[in-house]
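Schema walkthrough. Field components (list of strings):
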Amino acid sequence: MDNKDIANIFLRIADMLEIKNENVFRVRAYRNAAQNIMALARPLKDIHEEDPSLLDNIPGIGKDLKSKIIEMVGTGELGYYDDLMKEFSPGFLEMLNLGGLGPKKIKKLRDELGIENIDALEKACMKGKLADIEGMGARTEEKLLEAIEYFRKKQGRMLLQEADEYADEIVAYLKESGNFKKIEKAGSLRRGRETVGDLDILTTAKDAEKAMEYFVGYFGVDSVIAQGPTKSSVLLKAGHQVDLRVVDDASFGAALVYFTGSQQHNIKIRKLAKNKGYKVNEYGVFLIGKTGKERKIAGKTEQDVYKKLDMEWVPPELREDNGEVEAARDGTLPQDLVQLKDIKGDLHIHSTETDGRATVQESVEAAIRKGYKYIAITDHSKHVKIANGMDDKRILKHTERVRKLNQKTKGIEILMGVEVDILDEGKLDFSDSVLKEMDIVIAAVHSRFSLDLETQTRRILNALDNKYVNILAHPSGRLITTRKPISLDFDRVFKKAAENGVFLEVNTHGERIDLNAANCRRALELGAKVVIGTDSHEVEQLDYMKYGVITARRGWVSRKDVLNTYSFDKMVKALKRA
DNA sequence: GCCGTTTTCGGCCCGACTGTTTTCAGTCG
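Field assembly_structure (string):
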C-alpha cells in the first residue's frame, strides 16, 4: 500500500463516518491526516521500517491513526475500514461526487427512498419522488439531474498548463468588459499544483452586479451553478467549474489569501489569528474588542494580512500547510525561491534530428528571443526507435553541425548533448567514447517501467555511476493521466545524485512535471540539486519553463539549487564531475 | 481523532449561496 492508497482509505472512512453522522471533528481528523499523508515525499512503509516513532512527526497523525497506518503498511489491509464498508452497498458512496449532494441528503435518500446508487437516484428524480421528502423539492430534482449529467461527462482534474490556458482565456474575456479593475487567478492554479480541479478568479469591479452578469455570459459557459452578488460559479462546456468572486479594493488582499488557499493553510492561519484575539476572513483581519465589536486592521494587501499575524508573506506555492506557516512565523522561509527570471537557459531540447518538430536553428532563435544565455540540444539515442533515435554515426554528424552553428551564432552558447536511454542494469545506449564527446549528457528511462523496486533502483543507480552522466531526466517516469511512477527508492537515487554531482531534472513537459514538488524538497534535503528542463519538442514548449519553476518553488527550491540559473561559466564548471 | 506560548480537557476557520423554508440546514470552498 502506497501513501496514496492509505490517504484514500482515510478519505473514504471520513465520508462514511460523515454519513453515519459522527462527530464532525473526528471526520475532519481523517481528512486532515489524508492531506498530510499525500504531501509526504517518503513512503509511509519506508518511514515505518526505519523507525515507527518517526510516524509521530507527521502532523495530524496521533495514536489511533498511527496504529491504523501500521496495520496498513504491515498487512495491506485495514480491518476497521473493511467493517465500515460492509455497511454500504457498492456505488453508494459514489453519490457523494454529485454536486449539491452531501452526507445528510444522501442518508435521507437511502433511509426514506431506498436509493443506493446514482442510477436509482436518477430514476427517482425523473419520477418526482424526491418532492415527498422534507427539505427537498422539484428544484432539487432538477439540480440533481444536472449534477448526474455533469458527473457522467465530467473530465478529471486539468493539467496545470491546461488550467492556466483556460484561465487566461477567461481573464482576457473579463478584461474586455472594462468593468473589472483587478483580476487575479487564485486557487490551486495560483499555488501551481500539478493538476487543478476548479478555476478560481478574484476581482474587483466598478459594478459588482454587472460584473456577475457579464461573467456568466462568457461564451464558454455551459450552465450557471450559482449566482450571487459577490460570488458566482459556472460550468464550462469543457466540463470544468469556474468560480468568480468580486470584492472591495479594501478587502482584496485578504480575499486573495482566502481564495488562494490551500484550505489547510487558511485554517492554520485563522486558528493562529484567533489565538491572538483576531479574526481572519476573506474581508480582512479583525481585532475583536471586549464587547465583541470588530475593528478591521488589515485586508488591502496580502502582505498586510500576514504582517498583522506576525508572519512573513508566504509565497502562494508554499501554502500547503507543509511547515510554511511555522517558517513564516520564525522568519525561516526560503528567501531566494527560484523565479522564472533567474533562468538563464534550457538544457533539454529536442530537434528535427530525432522526434522534435523544431530545427536546431529555430530553437536557438527562440531561446535568444527569451534572453537565454545558453541552451543544449539533446536528442534521443537509438534505443528509442519510435522517436527516431540516433546511432553513433548520426550523433557524431549531428554534433558537428551543432558545433558549427554555435561558432557562427552570437549572443548565446549552444551545447551539444544527448538524452541517452538507460538500458537494462543501467547500461547506457551510447558507449563512453561517444558520451565523452558531449558537453552534456542526460540519462533517461523510456522502457521497462514495471521492474520491481530493487531492480529498477539498481538500474538507475548504475546509470548515475557512469562518469559522463550529468542529468537524470524525468526521474519517476510518470505521466500524470496515464502512467504511474516507476518503483524507485527515491532516497537512494537522490543520495547517489548528490554524491556524484548529477542534477535531477524537473521536467516541465505537460504530462510529466517530474520531479514533482514533494520529491524536489526531499532531493534537496538529501543534498542533491536540480535542473529545470522543458524537454521541448517544438518551439512553443520552451514557454513551459514557468511550470517547472513553479513546481520547484513548491518544492522549496532556491535559485542556488538550480543548475540553469547559473551563468554559462559556472554552469559548465558544475557539469564537471569529480 | 488531534492537539497545547492560557489548556492533557475542551476546544476544533469562516462565510456565500441554494432551496425550501418563514428562520435555517446543507453544501461548498
